[in-house]
Write a structure and sequence with these properties.
Elements lengths: L2 H13 L14 H9 L10 H17 L6 H5 L5 H14 L5 H11 L13 H12 L26 H11 L6
């Protein structure tokens, strides 16, 4: 993999979810974002493959935006990261609600209890990885607490529902439908 391209891509991804005027450990998220980006998004519920495909599509957008030559192997061979999936899905959430993609990204991190994991928090990459494993292997209760979209009034076991439908139920449950 082209290391320079990968570093530019990571910086581009970060710019989609945060802008820091005066960086300090309390408002930077390098450890969190690097861990999200270095963790493969693993799916095992039918339909969640679409979340991985959406995440990988960001690579094409990045290449086009930067006027880079198409690196087809880089775009297609490497698995989708959790960071890519969250950014791409936050855009889907924005399209279907009245919140911005940035707000959705941070709300999903909040639901995973990762929102406050800035560089001053002292949380290790290992601790972040544990949260991500818990989420991806759906080791959370049927109400989705510990996943991306916990529900107050679940109608189904959220550990068996694809992420798209978890999101749809969350919109209704939290009354976040667009006006």
């Amino acid at each position: 993999m082209n290391e320079r391209l990968e570093n530019l891509y990571f910086t581009w991804l970060c710019s989609k979810v945060i802008r820091v005027e005066n960086p300090s450990p309390s408002n930077t998220y390098d450890t969190l974002f690097k861990t999200l980006h270095n963790t493969e998004f693993v799916w095992h519920i039918s339909g969640d493959d679409n979340r991985a495909a959406g995440g990988k599509e960001l690579r094409r957008e990045f290449l086009l935006a930067g006027d880079f030559p198409d690196e087809i192997e880089w775009r297609t061979l490497y698995p989708c990261s959790v960071f890519e999936m969250l950014i791409a899905f936050s855009r889907v959430c924005e399209f279907n609600s009245n919140l911005s993609s940035v707000e959705w990204f941070w709300e999903m991190l909040d639901n995973l209890s990762l929102r406050d994991v800035n560089d001053a928090s002292g949380v290790s990459p290992y601790e972040i990885e544990e949260v991500l494993e818990h989420f991806m292997w759906r080791q959370y209760p049927p109400d989705g607490d510990g996943g991306l979209f916990p529900l107050d009034r679940p109608h189904k076991d959220q550990t068996k529902v694809e992420i798209w439908y978890q999101f749809c139920d969350y919109l209704v449950d939290k009354r976040r439908l667009p006006a």
